[in-house]
Structures are given as C-alpha cells and as structure tokens.
Amino acid sequence: xxxxxxxxxxxxxxxxxxxxxxxxxxxxxxxxxxxxxxxxxxxxxxxxxxxxxxxxxxxxxxxxxxxxxxxxxxxxxxxxxxxxxxxxxxxxxxxxxxxxxxxxxxxxxxxxxxxxxxxxxxxxxxxxxxxxxxxxxxxxxxxxxxxxxxxxxxxxxxxxxxxxxxxxxxxxxxxxxxxxxxxxxxxxxxxxxxxxxxxxxxxxxxxxxxxxxxxxxxxxxxxxxxxxxx
Length: 230
Known about the structure:
Layout: E1 7-9, E2 15-23, E3 29-36, H1 39-54, E4 62-66, H2 70-82, E5 87-91, E6 115-118, H3 123-136, E7 143-144, E8 149-150, E9 155-156, E10 161-162, E11 167-168, E12 173-174, E13 179-180, E14 185-186, E15 191-192, E16 197-198, E17 203-204
Parallel strand pairs: 4-5, 4-6, 7-10, 8-11, 9-12, 10-13, 11-14, 12-15, 13-16, 14-17
Antiparallel strand pairs: 1-2, 2-3
C-alpha cells in the first residue's frame, strides 16, 4: 500500500496528506490536512492547497498622487469619488503635512501603491514624471469625475484627468496626461494633444486636421493657456 511524503492511511479508510500552512508566534510549524479516497487524490488536493498558500498576496488598488498642491487636492477628491482605491496618498517635493514622502522617491512605494499619477500643472514636470512612473512599472490611471459627461466614442489617453462637470463630445480625441478642469468642453471630433491644460469653463474646438496650434507639435508640447494649476 502506497504511503509516505507525509501522507497516511487513516482508520476510517481515507488518506490524509499533511502540509505546513504557517507558523505560530514561536515559529513552530502549523499543519493543515487534505483528505482523499485514494493516495493520489489526497496528494493532488494537498499540492493544490500548498500552491494556493504560497501564491503572492493580491496587490491592493492604492493610488499615489505626485504633487500635493491645489490640483493634487482636486485629483484626490476625484479619485475618492470613484470609490475604487483603498488608499490614496500624496508625494511632494516641498514640505507638506499630507505627503508621505518626496516625489523623487516614488519608486520606493511601488509595492504598496501600484497605481500612480502626476498631478502638477507644470508640463515639463508632468511629462517627465509620467514617463518615469511608466518605466518604473506603475499603472497610470485615467481619472474621470462621475459628474463629467463623456461620449462613448471619445478617446482619452492614460494619465488624463477629467474634472467635475466637464463635457467631452462625440469622436473627440484627448491625448495622455491632459487636464480638463471643471466645466470645460471638448467639442465633437476635436483633438486635444498630449499634456494639454484646458482651464475652467473653456471650450476646445480645434481639430488636428485644421489647426496650426503649437500644441500639435510632437516635439515641443505647450499649454493652451499660461494659467496652470499647481
């Protein structure tokens, strides 16, 4: 009769396969058991249970916001309204009571905060941080406020933030890392380039085919307005 490998035949006729499922406070092994009508059945159940117990823990949907200024605070409130992130924290390179660390140290937080987004108005800094976050392995979200109206046919790039009561029309194309402030409108078939900032209440109508706007340059992205959130 086949036995061994910490598998034994019980008096009730079943096979019992034991495995270490953990350790107590003193470091001693805590055993679990799997049962089967045959040696092979008990062994298979035990191996499946061991594989499950040794699997890495699921990562939580925690969000890291780079920048604790006024725009960062708005992004925080938007993210909270979506109710999909268990924890949301700031990084900021300036002294801040709400930040848990400096933006330059974002890689140290990847394990606990797998999702991250830059929340600054400065286009150069926003571009650099976005690219560095992607290279480090962070997931970059697209955040759309629940009160925003976005056409199903619109395309919105990663890292873009669409704030409260903004409207994005049919067929509109919005690039990555853009900021649509509260009450803005991107009209149907309009094209908003990467890293753009549209201020509160403004309407964006430009299309790539028709526009000579400097924002459509792939080499030197600029802001539509001089005003930017912090």
